[in-house]
Amino acid sequence: MITWLRVAExxxxxxxxxxxxxxxxxxxxxxxxxxxxxxxxxxxxxSDMQAITVDRFLESLRPTQEQRRIFLIALExxxxxxxxxxxxxxxxxxxxxxxGDDPVWLLEHEALAYLVISVPLLQxxxxxxxxxxxxxxxxxxxxxxxxPEAERILDSALGVLDEVAAALHRTHLxxxxxxxxxCPVEEAPLPAFLASxxxxxxxxxxxxxxxxxxxxxxxxxxxxxxxxxxxxxxxEDGCPEHALPALCQLSDTAEWDIPAGDIQLExxxxxxxxxxxxxxxxxxxxxxxxxxxxxxxxxxxxxxxTIAQHRSARPEIAEQNMTVVARNYRGRGLGAVVKKAAxxxxxxxxxxxxxxxxxxxxxxxxxNRINESIGMQKISQASAWLKQAPLRTDGELGRA
Length: 400
Ligand SMILES: CC(C)(COP(=O)(O)OP(=O)(O)OC[C@H]1O[C@@H](n2cnc3c(N)ncnc32)[C@H](O)[C@@H]1OP(=O)(O)O)[C@@H](O)C(=O)NCCC(=O)NCCS
Fold this sequence. Notes:
The protein is an alpha+beta fold. The protein has helices at about 30-45, 55-60, 105, 150-165, 190-195, 220-225, 245-255, 270-285, 335-350, 365-375, and strands at about 1-5, 65-75, 95, 115-120, 125-135, 170-180, 200-210, 230-235, 285-295, 300-310, 315-325, 355-360, 375-390. GO terms for molecular function: acyltransferase activity, transferring groups other than amino-acyl groups.
């Protein structure tokens, strides 16, 4: 019988700890899940660019104001084999620790699969995001589909996902699947399985990366001035007060204009307070960032690009997670200018940085063109898959 156990949420990061928690030893479940998840991604893409560290995974499980993560592991256990007295989480799952010593009984069982469910709390509150990783022995060989045993485990994961969705009143359950830059997306094992279970693709993105060579990307100052705009560079410490209105305006534009296919999103207006909250949450969560902001002579927002990195991430890799140009300034090459300004500043401030990755909707012709024109290379493609769940109002899991 497949039994799903919750791996306890580690304590929240606090601003007082600077986002740090001292030395906390992750349990075997976290180490093994990081390993199989990295392995599956490396096999699919042929690159370790998107691999994460165990510490990064542990950090990602800490609750924040914006989201919670539910990490579950599947074990094959005979009836009655679960030790008595395990603590239960609010959804009714028996719980094992995420840090410290492994319970001895747990070490006797190999996990079959790992399920991570991300639950947004402030926006998009009818959605959740999930990721499933099978233990390495169930991964299909290149070009093959899942075995019946692997499908049995995945069906069990879909069942448990439905239960969590019902308990949390979530109806739109999304999953990202990543394949190599040139693979046909639909033919990969997980998309084929999901399609056979009634899920469908709602969005596609391409991932790029660029080698950061110091100084190589800096746009020339005269280039910026000639365009009648000025450049403001700032870090996770926060946007300068005078530029907050410009930042709010560009953040609103990004929320409305970044293509997201048929993913259901609920844009909500950016205010200076919301910006300051987001900056505080990011700092408390251990993120550092570089932002390049262009403003015009009247102080209005022209363009913005940000690069971020988590304290527990590999120091040589960061992510350029947003670039936007104000609608009335498009068509003048400013997306490339602001993107290069952020890359140059990240290279200057973070000497260990070697590569920066980014992800963009396949239909976003201008952004794909910019990425290629500044020397980024396509490394993989990701598709978002929607599983629709009926809205249940009982809110009870009724687990045994
Ligand atoms: C993407 C975005 C930043 C580009 O703004 P921009 O810098 O003003 O873009 P430009 O119009 O100068 O176009 C950039 C390049 O794409 C090309 N391009 C633009 N639209 C194109 C299209 N439909 N098909 C092909 N090429 C296109 C341009 O010719 C230009 O190439 P070139 O420099 O070789 O001539 C802007 O459209 C935007 O803010 N969109 C919303 C936010 C977003 O989607 N961000 C990306 C996700 S993070």
